[in-house]
## 1
Amino acid sequence: MSLTHYLVLAAILFTIGAVGVLVRRNAIVVFMCIELMLNSVNLTLVTFARASGTLDGQIMAFFVMVVAAAEVVVGLAIIMSIYRTRRSASVDDANLLKY
Amino acid sequence: MDTVPADGLLAASWLLIALPLAGAAVLLLGGRRTDRWGHLLGTGTVVAAFVLGLLCTFALDGRQVDVDLFTFAATGSLDVQAGLLYDPLSAVFVLLITGVGALIHVYSIGYMAHDPRRRRFFAYLNLFIAAMLLLVLADNFVALYVGWEGVGLASYLLIAFWHERPSAATAAKKAFIMNRVGDVGLALAIFVMFAQLGTVTFEGVFGSVGVLAGGTVTAIGLLLLLGACGKSGQFPLQAWLPDAMEGPTPVSALIHAATMVTAGVYLIARSAPIYDQTPTARAVVLAVGAVTLMIGAIAGCAQDDIKKVLAYSTVSQIGYMFLAVGLGPAGYVAALAHLLTHGFFKAGLFLGAGSVMHAMNDSVDMRRYGGLASKMKVTFVTFGLGYLALIGFPFLSGFYSKDAIIEAAFDRGDGWGYVLGAVAILAAGLTAFYMTRLMLLTFGGRPRWEDGVHPHESPSVMTVPMIVLAVGSVLAGFLLVVAFPLEEWLAPVFGEPEGAEHVVAPLVVSVLVTLVMVLGAGTAWLFVGRREVPLTAPVRVSPVVRAARRALYADTVNESLFMRPGQWLTRALVFVDNRGVDGAVNGLAATLGGSSSRLGRAQTGFVRSYALSMLGGAVVVAGALLAVTAG
Amino acid sequence: MNPDVVIGTGEAVVFWVLGPIALAGALGMVLSRNAVHSALWLVNTMLALGVFYVVQEAPFLGAVQIIVYTGAIMILFLFVLMLVGRDSSDSVVETLRGQRVAAILLGIGFAGLVGAGVARATQDLPVTGLAAVQGGENSNIEAIAALIFTRYLLAFEVTSALLITAAVGAMVLAHIEREPGTRPTQKELSRARFLTDRPQTLPGPGVYARANSVAAPALLPDGRVAEDSFATGIDPQEVDQMPRPTGRAELGSPDAALGTLDPAPSDIPGGRDR
């Protein structure tokens, strides 16, 4: 058991989140996947803070959480307004900006 | 050359050019408002220029006067001062240009009376006079070149004056293009002068031409000759001049007989110090003159178009002048004397031809003339005097000036001298032949007019200039050669006459020329005067006649040597341009366009596709980082 | 500083228990069809991560993770899910050709590269521990507060601006401006209703003893489903076939009193199932 385990776990979680972004079509689920990726990064930050013996990593994770909260609020509002106009929360339906 | 600054009246000699130029400007810019009095203004400015030229010439007193005007271009080592050189040689030309020009302006008032664009015609004529005066008055080669191009432009505009006729437009284009060939030669000559001597003034060039290597001088001489050939319709650039007869007849008289086409002779005479240094170039001038002399004379014998006959005659007579200037110092004066007398009688002949055409509803086919002597007495008499002067009838002007050239040719003393003299005498016979044929076809015999043609004498505004020129044709030779020798007048330019021994006695030459002339005229009478003239040219003729009708295949040669290869080259270039250059550019554009539209397909609008490519990029970056750190 | 803090067995146990749970949560989130299930799976993972934070000497972050993330943010997600409702996008059938295969391949590649890289680079990573900065009287919260209000003060203040902006932005985006008077009055609504083929009210959903969901349709007297009673946006549930009451004769037991599914129970004496 070492800190490497945490890091590898974080990497795997991050990858699952990324793949989820790619394969899910519901915008809200996509958003959840992004949250998962942010969380895995936070885990990495906390782990490195412990490894280095300074608190800066934790501070950074804290800021990530704040920014994530703000992002979720705005992002969900956007999803809602899109849903209102298009009656759909699918990311594939918002595809007018193309060739 | 020792020039003195201008003083008194001569300081105002720039007005010679400014007057007709102002006339042209007023007529061209004034528009329709000047229609009613435009021809009078045009004529008035030229008459005023003639009077001024006369006064200047009297004030000249054998000096060479330099008139400084302004700095034309001063860049680095090239310093071109616009200036005029008024010397006896220029004076002779000024008087010829303004004198004959004024007469032809007067004549044109009548000739162009019914043309809706008469004002523009006079504007172009004024422009021509101004450019021609600049050409002969310039004191450096650059200003001469400006005038040279100016007369080329005016000539183009006037040949194409009736541009609604395709033949006129084509002829104008032909003249312009063939002149360009010559002009390139002149321009190159000026470049060489500047490169080698650093100056383009007559004084500077002629003063230092001696220091140049022989080859360079020869090159300059040959390039100048190319320019002269283009402008004067000399071999190998003679083909445009007969076609230029598509212009109105006064134009043919003024530009394509009396003045502009003699600019080549002027150029060579003016550049005498250069040609004195290079016997090679002079020999080429001689050869060009002799060849053109014969070509013009032979081609003139077989033409049915009255103006074409006169045009080939002009080509031939200018060949005489080239022959003379090619002879060197001995021939300059003879060439200029012939130039002046030719200016009189050929202008008179053209005006007479214009009068005849005027009477015959603008027909130029001599086979449909005949019997006009009784209907148009003034025209007949003035034309006849010009004719006699041209063929060298004793004691008329052509007799003096042409004999002088033939004498000068014999005076060369060597075998070539005899050859050239013989050629000149033979051409004199041919001249007599074709001119007699012209006279007989036009004025003699029975009328062969087309229906509805009622010949009448032209108005006096046309006949008076013809009479004046006829008097000039009769007297000019005597005046210039015997009474007031041109030799002495031009002595400041060409040096004192040497009074050399004649190889063949002048009397012998005169008798010989007269005999040949009578022989030629008699032959013409045998061919034309004795029998009925067919209304259309006979088809079954000897190869010689066929060749002569087609001007010794000059156009054919030009077409096959230059036009066709040029067209082929153009087609090849167009092909290369279309397929090669355009193909490459279009292909590149099509490739880029195709690939971009194909790449555009990647822009599906699906966010997830974009995210996938981002992940792909992240994988590549991670792999690269790992490879770098591990490596 | 003590560079050689050894990770205890307890922590290892926690990791090996919660690590798979976190992974399972993540996979479940990605794989479940229902978005609400996804949210719950994610909550699962986040809770596990919160425990990891606490274990890794970051109790404040662990608390924040649980309170703010799983508590607040995920509830927000659920609210929006309820507002938006179920959707065809919940389908897990892939519509972009090759997207899923490419995503999985790239994901495996990425995980392999990053995991291998991290494992290789950090196998000798010393565990310094945070005892030096937050040991004794100086607790974790105090140490973090000291840093936030000194070194990271500017970023912290800017964060407040970010939050305000986000709140205002969300309000602007979600707000619907409605002109006063554009809302139809009751008179207009009722007039419109009487102009249709069906002036009477729609039937309510079926309400039964074992199902009072709006998803349960009402039944017509002949036993058919009343389609007018379907709620919009919700798939109708399987009709909850309540056993019909039978009658005193059949009431053998409390269970039997609830009735039978048999279509014609009255013919059978003595009841069937005991």
Note: Chain A has a mean pLDDT of 90.
## 2
Amino acid sequence: MSERIKQIDILGVVMWFFRAAIIVAMLWGTIATLMDNPYSAKAWTDTIVAGIAQGSLYALIAIGYTLVYGVLFMINFAHGEFFMSGIMTSTIFIAIPMSESGYLDANPVLGLIIIALVTMLVSIGVAILTERVAYKPLRGAPRLVPLITAIGASFFWQYYFRGLYGSEVKPFPLIDSIAGKMTIFGIEILKSQALVIVVAIIMLIGLNLFVIKTKVGKSIRAAAENKDVARLMGIDVDRAITITFTMGAAMAGIAGVLYALVFRQVHYFMGFFPGIKAFTAAVLGGIGSIPGAALGGLLLGVFESVGPALFLEGLGVPSPHQLKDVIAFTMLVLVLIFRPQGILGERLAEEKA
Amino acid sequence: MSKRLFAVLALLLIASMVLTACGSPEPEAPAEEAAAGEEAAAGEFECTDEIGCVTYYADEPVRIASALVISGPNTDLGMDSQYGVEIAIAFKGDVAGHAVELQAEDDGCSAEGGQAAGQKIVSDQTIIGIVGTSCSGAGVPLSTVMSEAGYVMVSPSNTSPSLTSPDEAWNPGYYRTAHNDKVQGKAMADFAFSELGITKAAAIHDGDPYTEGLAAVFADSFKELGGEITEFTAVNKGDTDMRPVLTSVAAGEPEFIYYPVFTAEGGFLTKQAREVAGLEDTILAAADGMISPAAIEAVGEAGEGMYFSGPDLGFENELYSEFLAKYEEDYGTKPISVFHAHAFDATNLILNCVESVGVVDGDDLHVGRQDMRDCLGATSGYDGITGTLTCDEYGDCADPQITVSQLTAGEYEVVWP
């Protein structure tokens, strides 16, 4: 017994030392950077805005992870591919032909709505197909089985779409009316970034309301709470699960369109890194929580964008931007040390964790 | 439990015996054939080579491998070289009475891809030499793997200085027909400083040995000329959001940014540079990794007026015209990137050495692996498409001519020298 207490103490001390070291390094770096401030105020706001836009994308994708985890307690690693499949397809079959015929520049709003609808439909189709074929037969299996299946599904879709559309980078057309910059509240911001932020906020609020207010949303929450009891109450759990995947994929589809508007390049591997980052964002915010996913995504995006210049430059690290992933994951570790359930996550019961 | 374990072990043992039985009988069978047919029996040749010999029996083709990037965003770079290899084999015909067979592998333009391709190639003892890799990042692990296994490789497109620098990544058996970036980086610095009159420049790489080496040589040469490097920084392969790093770069107010990276990251950098405050009119420049139709698509309208350093393709010899005619005939396009001629020369260096060091023994051909290395190393004054090739002791064989071209209306136009 006394042996055990001693062990925990040593571990605790090490953990405390670790936390303190990260925080001291961050503070030191921040102070050193700000003392010798190489950037103008405008450069800082530009960086923060870029981070918010990137974070909005993470948030939209993270929703898919969080919803599926909330209901099925599985991590759907194929989610990044739902994101990729829709926008790849609509870039090739809708956006590029529409841009070449001049339709997209003439009717940007209608054109973008058509692109968004097609993207969402393809993403949802891929998601439902994956759920039916790969996940549903494994509903009762141990938790590791669907996890590995999800990784397999991810590879399958990546290489399926590579075979379908080729491995080259496809350019997404530039739409004149959202090119260039605009000024909001005295901050100069790229129109495409502003669009990303606004659309993401609307989608996230809408989704949250949908899950809280509507009957379908209630059935999803019931299925998340306890599938057996939900079934006894007359809820079609399989349908609730399908709707969960549908909503997650729709969000991923929208994220795909926004990604294409900001970065204007798509290719078959584009889902992988945003998928990993969005998963990180979902864990950071508290997996299973929709507001948590949104907050996690935003924080991750901003830290990634501002962190290298703010924390690392002052410490004299060369090429700090190469280390932005280190910052993102260090932040994840830091948050999980203090709040293992994530920022907005509730402490999960034993069976869910 | 232990019974089941025993059963499984027994099964594995049987399986492994069956597999070895399947794998080994190859060498004896053709030897007998040769002995029956010809006066000189195959068994009589004694291999005295330090690191072993490869024997091609009657009717067996001489086998070489390519390890080029033939998938992903940089496909054009690798396929272009692969076409060069195929044309070289077609022009060459038989080597010492044996046909030539090419095994094409993918270097993936990454360290992992190079490692995997290398392992696969050296597991095949009938391969005598490798043309590859496309990317220096893949070349570093592949050259280690092939060197330990006793192979030779001639890269048509690795340009990182580290690969032929004995203190860094050089391995015995490594040669290249591509230029060393010590030349390319210096040429770009000359162009920017003397031709464009730039005094403040920045450089960005992506951590790959090729991009890092080239950016570093550019920065050093530019400083030597008297210019100022405002920022020397890096992104990651796979990054998409370049605005934060570009904002940092913009703080130094450079007039010129050189980012010798690959297609995907280069596309993001180019498009986003135009949207970052302070960089709207900065001159952008990249390198030979981004001279391809795919790169033109990736940079889009933002790449108009951008500069690219790369090998001089104005080869004035008859061989090159024949080569180009064959290229268009077979693949229905003009060359899609810049290292096809280097690949042609690289393949010929290997095949010529097979011819000159191979010992013909009746219908059989024996080639010593150390002999191959010695032969390639002794290359001197060889007239290829890309110039007169002479290998130095660390494998640099190129006759390097660098030009700078500008992207004008979707075409690369040579503007310097």
Note: Chain B has 13 helices and 17 strands.
## 3
Amino acid sequence: MKAAVIGYAQTKFKEHWDKGLRELISEAGNNALKSSNLKAEDIDNLICANTLAPLVNGQSNVNALCFEELGIKSSVSINCGDVSGSAAIRQAMFEICSGKSKIVMVLGVEKMTDLLSSQITSAVSMLLDHEWEVFNGATLASMYAMLTRIYMKKFKVKPEQIAKVSVKNHKNAVNNKFAQFPFEINVDSVIKGPSVDSPLKVLNCAAVCDGAAAIILCEESLAKKYTEKPVYLIGSGAGSDYLALHDREDFLEMKATKTAAEEAYKQAKIKPSDVSLAEVHDSFSISEILAVEDLGFAKKGSGFKFIEDGKTDLTGKLPINPSGGLKACGHPFAATGIRQAIEITMQLKDEAGKRQIKNAKIGLTHNLSGTGSTAIVNIFSR
Amino acid sequence: MIGIVGYGSYIPLYRIKTEEIARVWKRNPDDVIQNSMMEEKSLPAIDEDTATMAVESSINALKRAKINPKDIGAIYCGSETHAYAVKPDISLIGEAIGAAPNFTGADLEFACKAGTAAMQACMGFVKADYAKYGLAVGSDTARYNLENVTDHNMGAGAASFIIGKKENEILAEIEGTFSYTTDTPDFWRREGEKYPKHTERFTGKPAYFKHTIAATQNLMENLGLKPSDIDHAIFHTPNGKFVIKAAKFLGFKKEVIKSGFIVNKVGNVFSAATLLGLSATLDKAKPGERILMTSFGSGAGSDSFSIKVTDKIKDKVNLAKTTQEYLNNKKYVDYATYCKFTGRLK
Amino acid sequence: MAWRRIKQRNCLIGSECNECKTLFYPPKLKCKKCSSSNLSEFKFSGKGSIVSFSEIRNPLYGFEKQTPYTIAIVKLEEGPMLTTQIVDFDKIEIGTKVESCLRVMHTEGHSGMIQYGTKFKPAE
């Protein structure tokens, strides 16, 4: 049995000064119901993905807010860092494939912009090992900065080459009305831009923002009832690794990604070369480069070249982050995995408008938590 | 027999020159140097305090003592700038150097003489067989109102001494000690206040000199010592000049204060001042030489010690970084950085 | 509660697997190599070298006053790696030899606790 995507919706990802968790949930959730002509009572269960509300908004039990706004009779929350959205989709698959539920809504929501900068830095750094990284002053960005430095030294990579990731993703976002930064940038603006944690520049990093995204999944036999072109979740894999970077065997190979990808490919019965497009976790440019390698699209140490050579452009052999990725769409933690699934769904249904990839048959989402302590890979097909 | 079995210094990396402070307050640096002899002074890094510096100097003392830290039964740390008002530095020191949990001790305060008071407390414990070894520390991040010329003198540093009584371990025997204490309010800091206050010229004759000289003379008389018996002398150094004057008054040779004279390079490090002077002197002293050390703490009192260097000193000096090495390893900062590192920026 | 890690942090106490002799810092409850739960305390020398580093300009809450500060992954002489800060340096690079020192990590405002921990500085 497979699960099929029959509806989707998202809010724009941005600083929603006038919207709180309730408004974001209401907009994404109700529009997702509308998109599949479903009513709240048609949904058996809702899985709500959220990471930071207990800290940022002082709000736990976010799934109860979903009940208030959407009226779906049962719900649970899921939190495993910024991979929560993808994890919720995976849980929905289990629920449907086990026969427990027929139709499930998965909703990811994050309201991140209500904190001052050092407070949000502390909040997002909760994804790291608190006792042995954060206690000593480490931030999420600084850990990725150290990874970037190691990668650049080992494979002799220049900042200009790393910058290509952001340049490509911004270009893709131009036609995405839900993206936080739908405009083009160039290599110069990245490397001459403001510095953050060295050697990172501001434009190497995805930004904090608010947003919600929802999809509705059902068991495959019912799918055609709700949509002409269902998209099927044909494989899902999860992988774990040590929470702290310093405990990992190899900094430049994300074991969690490899474990997740292997499982997902196996279930989907495909090879990396069968993938037509992918949405990968580019919270920092280095994470897209490592993902391209660890997902099996490029050899270790050549991911940056693969991207630099245009192979991952919209018109390339394997478009990556056609939506604009986390970099240009914004990264409201738990909403990201679901936003990635929406992009893949749109592409596989030929609904992506100006950024539509021709003959897209199989799409993959890759989502991480922290510096790669958890990875989830979901594979979808027409 | 009782004496020192290990000793160690710590001076932070950072220095500020007298000229740099004078530049900001539009003083003539030559006037300042002439008045106090201060050329430059040490300051803590932004993440250093009395406790962390005390750990560094105590680790150096342990390196020289080569004893099992678990045999240290008492730790006393003297300071005017303990990390907390309530919560001991010595618990952190004892844990960090591996002495915990079977030891006693306390944080001491007696203005600039709490470090030598710590030494006396350790001597008592060890002599009474309540502890195999005692660790005495003086550590301070001295500070004064920035606008006051006294701020030129405020330094940071720590020195640690391990007191024992096994003859074959003692690198310097403590021949005797004498203290002289009266109620003389020449310098104080009230509860909750950030900076101390002093009484300017009153801090000299009725305070510093009276107590320093009385303690020293009493000790020398008790031990039957003449000025010519003293090879090295260390007095408390609120500035460079007082110590020279005290030595002269006592009839000591001019050179005796040389080995321990570091105030012009680190400043007045309060409770660590006399002890850092002793540590610097031990780095240079030869077996058989006699060191006279007298501290002064405002409020007011002096502890005087006669210390005789043994043969053991030769094997010990190079086991840890010397005071001179700390003095040589330095990085100058500007006034803004000085303010940042010492927590003056709001 | 940072208290329970004081000894491990301030004295660099990690663990050693009594079965396969592998060393761990930070300490582990279970051997990463042979899965044995039979581990004992091991004190590390505090000498090591820099594997990577980053100067932090966007600090954590409570670290603002010491910003910028430099975070690093250090490989200890005995093998394990840890995340720490580098202090008292002019220039560092990957491979720079460093040694441990005890420093203030951060203070919880004016009236809160002072949190200490091990940082590293260039080795002499």
Note: Chain B has a mean pLDDT of 97.
